[in-house]
Amino acid sequence: MTRIATLSESRDSCHNCRLRTLCLPDNLPKDDIGKLEGIVQRRKPVSRGDYLFQAGQRFNSIYAVRTGAVKTSTLMANGDEHISGFHLPGEVIGLDAIVSRDHPSSAIALETASICEIPYAELETLSDHTPSLQHRLMRIMSRELLAEQSTNHLLSRRSAEQRLAVVLLKFSERFAERGLSALRFRLPMSRLDLGNYLGLVPETMSRTFRRLEEQGLVGIAGKEIEIVDSGAMRALAFGAEGSQVARA
Q: Which ranges carry the HTH crp-type domain (predicted)?
């Protein structure tokens, strides 16, 4: 039986967490994991709609999502919200504030979320005394930033159908990385939020979902998505760039 992708599982420690390979540097020695775990603060769950941090707030920590999902967004000059990303369990938030020391965006829970907070000053001190941790943390930060840049590049200059196909395929890959189904999953955000992220008004979002369903590419039941024809989805999303780009 296919395991439908959900975002609610967790473990109490870094050593036992099944998301360890996603939010911790690859192959980090057990002793270094223990040191890192010593500074991790496990916050009480953040309720849906509550802020993890707000734009303009002083940067003190980076955050790893344990369960649930979080969106990051900014307010435009006219007061409209612009959603810049969606973050799943095992992903790290707040890296974009390291240089400026102020958060350029807000992080808001899309559903009840468990969060690990890592005070950055303590992380820097620990990294100074643990070279292997410092090296591998740089790798994970680079990975997170490159993934965001890659998605933004893939969404540029594409039709509404192509943009939606790209994002659904990216979610498919992200759920698969968590040991969940790549073909059947539940989107954590509303269609309104997804449309905001893609730059599509609600009416266009509804038409675009409907067209993908009518073409036999996906099955849709509320927030639950089934990718029926992944090959055709890749062809739509990436065209001549092919499936190799889809896996980048």
A: 158-231
The residue type found at 159 is: S
Neighbours of 118 (CB within 10 A): 20
More confident residue, 247 or 56: 56
Tell which residue, 172, 162, 241, has the closest CA to residue 200: 162
Same structural domain, 72 and 92: yes
| pLDDT at position 245 | 42
Is the pTM here over 0.90, yes or no?
Answer: no
Cβ burial 153-170 (10 Å sphere, 16+ → b, else e): ebbeebebbbbbbbbbbb
Q: Is the pLDDT of residue 3 over 60?
A: no
Choose the final residue of a domain: 127, 153, 179.
Answer: 153
Both tokens assigned to 45: 């769950």
